[in-house]
Amino acid sequence: MRALNLLVLSFLASALTAAAENRIVCYFGSWANWRPGNGKFVTADIDTSLCTHFIWTFVTLQGNQVVSSNGEGVNGLREFIQLREKNPSAKFLVAIGGAVDSHGPKYSNMVSTASSRKQFIDSTVALLKQYKFDGFDVDWEYPTRNGGVPADRNNFVLLLKELKERFTQEGGLLLTAAVAAGTWTASQAYDIRAISQHLDFVNIMTYDFAGSWEPRTGHHAGLRGDLSVESCVKYWLDQGCPKEKLVVGVPTYGKTWTLADANNNAPGAPAPSAGQAGPYVREAGSLGYNELCEQIREGQWTLRFDEKARAPYAIKGNQWLSYDNVKSVTEKANYIKEQRLGGAMIWSIETDDKSGACGEKFPILKALNAVLRGGQPVQQSPAPTPTPKTAEAPKDSPSPTAGQCTKAGNIADPSSCGYITCVDNGAGGFTRYQRQCAPGLCYKASADYCDRP
């Protein structure tokens, strides 16, 4: 009988582990309907078969109350929750916070007393009931940081404990959190063992390890290395987060830099400024995977892979990009499965490649599904070999003084359709580096990127 009980317990444990491995959590940036062209993403674009959990971002904190600026409009809460009709087995959550809303003392003030926490919890439950959500995701970036105070660490535990108790009373609403991955922030912000007790799962933001705030290139979401997915997962597990609750973050965007010297372009190369903004996200230093895929299809980027970090990167003239692709995401999914972790999450669904410019539609999500949920393997199209074209000179022809460096940055090259990067030489002058745009493109000074003439 004892042997039978052990067998049953073993079977249940295996079943629970398998269920955890199947978890694919998809954040949705509800503001994406404002992006131009193919970057526009609305609720109807979501493929509900590719995620087990969907999280709408973001509601915000005003005083001690949860507030939404978009309940009923396009990409709003009401429209989002109606996706349940397409996939009744999926869970739908709403997130509070994010990088912008988390700055300042307001979250610290809210968690500081039992009465203010109760006001917050009451308003949270009211919102979830109003729109019939399955749960709530707390994305406070981060307790003790960005205007916070040391007491946040313990008060955050109290908030989650009281939220979970109330959610249990309300019929078992889900409680999750998006958390900093790296040791430096996580060690100050969280009592990891304590918060893990009250969360159904933990979305660890294993990305943004590097970016244009640093003057050299680096992998922002590498699987291996000193600061990497592996090192952060190990830290969280060592600090007491259960394996089955730890959900590994995967970015659907890249981090970009402008190189000091286009010929020095290995990981770690000097790069004094952010990379050029893309046409959809329109943020210097960042490029959505959807933006990258379109540019890969046009032959604009040279693609490379760092065997040590198990991470791809790409180069276009003096532009350097760290990102994830089907190969690296597949390796991450296999790592999640081998370690029996709680699953994968993406930030965020609207910058995956919905149009299939890289091959299949939603290749990042489908690569995760292939490993974690038995989906079909994803074949990513290789970068095409561009056909050289003769580009016409831009209409705004350069003046006689064009091509002379007067400050650091890029200027039009009067002798070609390319451009010149001016780098301060430290001696009161500039070093000039001539760059060429991809075939068929010309440098557009007003926008600081290569475009069709």
From TrEMBL:
Class in the EC hierarchy, top level? hydrolase
Q: Which InterPro entries does UniProt cross-reference here?
A: Chitinase_II/V-like_cat, Chitinase_insertion_sf, GH, Glyco_hydro18_cat, Glyco_hydro_18_chit_AS, Glycosyl_Hydrlase_18
UniProt-recorded Gene Ontology molecular function terms: chitin binding; endochitinase activity
Keywords of the record, alphabetical order, are: Carbohydrate metabolism, Chitin degradation, Chitin-binding, Disulfide bond, Glycosidase, Hydrolase, Polysaccharide degradation, Signal
Q: Where is the signal peptide?
A: 1-19
Residue ranges of the region described as Disordered: 376-405
EC numbers, comma separated? 3.2.1.14
What is one Gene Ontology biological process annotated in the Swiss-Prot or TrEMBL record?
chitin catabolic process
Please report the stretch or stretches of sequence annotated as the GH18 domain.
22-375
The entry's family comment says: Belongs to the glycosyl hydrolase 18 family. Chitinase class II subfamily.
**PANTHER family in alphabetical order:** CHITINASE, CHITINASE 12-RELATED
Which named protein is this?
chitinase
Gene it is expressed from: LOC105269308
